[in-house]
Amino acid sequence: MNATAKKPVKRMGLLIDYEYCTGCHSCEIACKQEHNYPVGRGGLKLTEFLTERPDKSLRIDYLPFPTMYCNLCKSRTNDGESPSCVKHCQASCIHYGSVKKLAELMESRPHAALFTPI
Ligand code: SF4
Ligand code: SF4
Fold it and tell me: Which helix (H) or strand (E) holds 105?
């Protein structure tokens, strides 16, 4: 084996478990403040989905959707800190880690989305 061969870099991402997301916007605001994004730009965009149940009642789901501006808070995570959105979600909906670990965690989360930046 080539002694200079590099180990593959772990792919990192966010797991967004929106089961208990209240739509409070704290993650969006924390991201904007961390990166000083101008109005209209941010690493997360909170989206709301309305679904009509068979009994005609409405189900509301909130999903913070990562945008192209999310860089996984590289300056924080390089220092061993959590991404700002992870730190400020009081419902612990957002998880940061290797895609492999997050996919394992996802097995037990019925309403979750896995995000990895390009
Ligand atoms: S990981 Fe950082 S950059 Fe990405 S959405 Fe969360 S706070 Fe914003
Ligand atoms: S993910 Fe957390 S911080 Fe973001 S809107 Fe949902 S509950 Fe609030």
Answer: helix 99-106
